[in-house]
Amino acid sequence: MRAVDAIMECLKAEGVEVVFGYPGGANLPTYDAFVDAGIRHVLVRHEAGGGHAAEGYAKSTGKVAVCLGTSGPGATNLVTPIMDAMMDSVPVVFITGQVRTDLLGTDGFQEADILGITMPAVKHSWMITDPADIPQAIHEAFHVAGSGRPGPVVVDIPTDLSKADIPYEIGQEVPLDLPGYQPKFEGNAKQIRQAARALAAAKRPVLYVGGGAVAAGAQDEVRELAHVSGFPVTCTLMALGVYPAPDPQWLGMPGMHGTRTANYSMDEADLIFSIGARFDDRITGNLAEFAPNAKFIHLDIDPAEIGKNVPAHIPIVGDAKQVLGKLIPEYESLGAEKARLDDWWEKIHGWQAKYPLTYEDTKDSEIKPQFAIKAIWEASGGDAIVTSDVGQHQMWTAQRYDFKEPRTWINSGGLGTMGFGLPAALGAQVGNPDSLVICVTGDGSIQMNSQEMATATQEGLPVKVVIINNGYLGMVRQWQELFWEKRYSHVDLRDPDNEVPNWMKLADAYGWTGVRLEKKETLVDDLRAAFATPGPVLVDVRVVREENTYPMIAPGAAARDMVG
Amino acid sequence: MGDPGTKEVLSLEALQASASLRTGRKHVLSLVVQNRPGVLVRIAGLFARRGFNINTLSVGPTDDDNKSRVTVTVDGATVPIDQVTKQLHKLVNVLKIRDLEPDQTVARELALFKVGVENGPRRAEVLQICNIFRGKIVDITKQSLVIEVTGTPEKIEALEEMLLPFGLIEMMRTGEIAISRGRDET
Ligand SMILES: Cc1ncc(C[n+]2csc(CCOP(=O)(O)OP(=O)(O)O)c2C)c(N)n1
Question: What is d(CA A526, CA A534) in angstroms, rounded to the nearest whole number?
Fold first, then answer.
């Protein structure tokens, strides 16, 4: 059959229900195959939207997502989502069209060396040189993307090869040939026992949980370990919801805009058990001063994360779910008394009482952004799937939405990609048709991929987009205020004479319902009504313009020196 | 610390982190890689992107057509060798990596020296030096000689120093290749 028809069969064999993509010259054969394949295809309005939608689908469902683009500009438009997926370990198979093989290397029309361009941004990639290899490459791509530490992969297929006739039969077994790829899952039994002993010896422990716990589906194990040990828990931006918030053992998020309690706990801990986290600089602040008293148990499926930023006293390479499953009974068998943690908890409770997450509310009807996030939480019953963009609104949401389950908080953590939120919401809605999906965004970020409003309408995706509208590139403004003597440079998005864009007209133009909300008193009810409105809704929430996101570890400072 | 299976807990103070990130010595990494398009770019790109400086890199076929051997030398004083090997292991086309122990390894490189000496006493002197270093003359003209020599980097550097005063026109080195001593495969 034609190679492109074999691709469709391979996708079906991998259980693919939906593909996000955009056609062009070099992938015309693939698009022809869609006509008869019976696979849902979501036509986005920009390849970056397609890539982020695929990420939203993958992050919210845990499945490997698929995104298609044509050669040249189509492929280069995918670079941002590919890098984004790399940073946040999101399993997406990107399939790009490429110019004909006889044009390769000649600067042919719409030729871009997408393999070369994305090499530092992929888990692995395949250049097809023989059409008969295509089925194997597709299956290998799914295997590599979805197993071990998940990540993006690229399969680049020259258009002439995709049209070729290849020997392939539906349902055919395709052996993989990946001798250099062998992720380890079980964890070394001796190291696990050693870790259990260290945990039993700890007097000031912290469970520090990262995105690896989400990827492994280890929420039950994390919760059980917390339950049997009585240890305090903090989850990174990538892991919110693995441990439910609020909860007596929940410290809040750590890092630059985390809670003082979480940061001070790490600072004074004698043992930090990192479960699938990577000690990113936004967590540690000044690395030299990070957690000076702590020993580290570092559990990660990627050996290269262990010892990268902080020393690992007990390294464990393995899958968080499997390793914790073995570690918990080991820990219990040691009979460690919870009472040894009493002093530690007293200290933590002291911080919690002294430094709750607060802000000063307005005296009138004006809406503070923090108030708006709490209102979104209340109006949505606290259990929506929430995506966000990048900036102050993202941090306020992470701090205040109180996520209860993993895969309900979808954001761009490692790359910090503005424009992620709306397409990610579309992907999440495709994967979770019965859920309320809310995108909390800024008036800056939403404009980076607002063309995807058309996709929502055409595909009937009833996402609710809430703009925390401060008229500024708020997070940049905040840094200019705090670190650049308030010399505001190109952060003001408001034109005094015109409302650009006119948000209600924008909503209207795309067939969305538009609502503008400015009153604190009715905000929760108004949001509730907006969320109950069928179809996609754009909610423009006008907030106090110059509010800062606090608390904050200034860049390069130590966690204990948080401000605000 | 107790035996496996005992209820003894351990003392946190006694826990040591794994060895220092910087070993301070030269490392010879021997990689077996799949012969796939772009594999060298992936390796070189990884070094560049993570700021790992490469001292030498050599690539060649092996006895298996599907595999190549890459030998990389890096300075453990400036490069976190543990990160280097772990990151290399993540490359799907890298099958095997060995951080060769210097005293368990035979490492050699080949160098070609072009020396500008006319026939006469100076040329005789160069030939003598070449002999001492067990070099071979592989090209000779009225104005020049090309010397081929193999050996450790130290030997090649010593020869370079000896030849410099005679008018070294150019020199090329392959970078080291290395094989482990004894019966076991590298
Ligand atoms: C693609 C991209 N460009 C630039 C930035 C830098 N940046 C980080 S936050 C931010 C401001 C975001 O403004 P807005 O979306 O309005 O959110 P707010 O901070 O006001 O909540 C900018 C420009 C980025 N993260 N991503």
Answer: 14
